[in-house]
Amino acid sequence: MGMNGWVDRPASSAAVVPPSSGFGTTGDPYLAWSVDQAFAGHARLATPDGRVPLLLELKAAQWPALLSSGVADVAPAYTIAGAQRFATALVPVAQLQALASLVQRMEFCLPVQANVAPAAAAASAPDGPPLIFAVIDRGCAFLHEALRQPGAGGRAGGTRLLGLWDQSTPVVAAASTAGIPGAAPAGFGYGRELTPQIIDSLIARMAYEGLDEVAVYAAAGYLLDDRGRLREAAHGTHVVDTGAGRVVGSTPRSSSKPDADDAASAVPLIFVDVPGLVEHDTTGASSAAFVLDALHYIRLRAGSQAQVVVNISLGALAGPHDGSSLLERAMDDLLQRDGRMAILLAAGNAGDGEHQRWHAFGNLDGGATAALDWRLHPEDATDSFVEIWLQSRDGAALPQIRLTAPGAEPSPWADIGAAPQLLPAPQAAATAAPVAAIYSRGADHWGPDAMALVAVAPCAGSRAAATAGVWRIELRGKAAAGRTVFDAWVQRDEPVFDGGLPIQSSFDAASGGTLITGSGSLSNLATGALTFVVGAVDATAGRITRYTSRGVARSSTRRGVRDIETFGFADESATAIGLLAAGVRSGTWTRMGGTSVAAPWRARRLLNFLAANPMPADSHLVTQLRGSAAMPMPPL
How far apart are CA 196 and CA 185, in angstroms? Predict the structure, then answer.
């Protein structure tokens, strides 16, 4: 045990659960934190023999060893297509250590409940639709009139959805509902797919049995809040309606849709509902594996020839922000190989650095010290994280790092890239879950930068262990070393239950040449090379909104290679925030704003452009769009 109650865990330490320090440069520090917490923060992983989803990066030579090892269930969608650089897998907790030695990189994702029933038989992709709009989000009101074909007599007809994959709902749960069928889509071993035939049969039941939408959603166990009531609004429904919803009835002045149907109103739709946190799921993990699975599912349902515009209005705050994250690399790889898909990403809503205080950057010279005061709130029932990304210039040695809890002595200084430091609970056994930890790694095949993750347990709730207040993170440059440029991001917090509000930690102050700023606040998905990043403007003045996340200023760090490249309307005005689009029930409206709305607003314009200007069959869609007038600032 180190000084002041800190534990320095050597890389060779043994444990019943695979030691997090054994993941080395291959593993994900968030996975290390979950391992050191014995996965207590994950409601869907209550047993130590459970399986966790991982996003994997592999070299071609690693595929045979992985598939023959038996340590991971690789999604069949990837093995059928042959060895690929990126894939997803379900991995037993006990096999995590073994897997780390077989792959190039791996990223931990939110645990989900696996299906007990087999997946559906492979479905043939549709022939004909040349253009499709796909959304990866949460909550799709699949019965809504705006997402259906126009019918006779002004009534809504059948669905426009070619598929709805609810990744969170296992088939075992769906089997107990009131006759709502479904199976995991072919090639993937989890979730429930509603095919066009299933959705149309539900629409027919509504007509012939006198059911309303509320009854069908309740029977399906979908779009319900934590009390079993139908939600009034769903983020994904607003997004898909903004991007391609039909105009049903009169259009309000502040609608995100046009006054009349356009080409986008008729395009077929695909929706993937990615998992989110559930009650008592409090430890940080990403949705990266589910997003990559979603993109492969979208291509399968769209068919190989269709041009597909994909909207992703999801994301987090922390990450390398230089395009080197695993999912950004995987999306770039898929877009390059596919050639007929474009992905639009919401830039993020963290640009107001003065009020949100989630990003900081600094330049640390040899012998100097920089500090960040990080505030955690007493009612925060989720784990809190800060990522620090460092670039050592001119061959300078990386700095040291330490953490000080409120009212406590600081931890020992530790080298970036050294073994994890774990702060155990007061008077607890050495095997107890740590209250806080520092995980770090040097520059390696993850990317060009070194990285440190500071993790702190919840301050409230069943896992409450940490002291609320100001925690201090310090970096110290080594004597006679050159300058180190670094960025720090507070990770975005999530609600701990359906409908709950996140209790977001933030930076209180910075010192030692460190500034808190809204620059560098782009979504963690938005710095890849081939995706399109959409910022928000208000529809009255046409000005970029203050909250829109930005790229890092080129004068501060090297992370200036990507920024917003196009914009969309998201607010009625500077004082009337948000625009109206579909609520969950047909005939209802809900107001939402942010870059989550700007992205599908821009996607609708892109769909209309592609409908009027078909690209040659052999053209690469992303390349053509970057060279066309389809993606600039909207005419105002």
Answer: 13
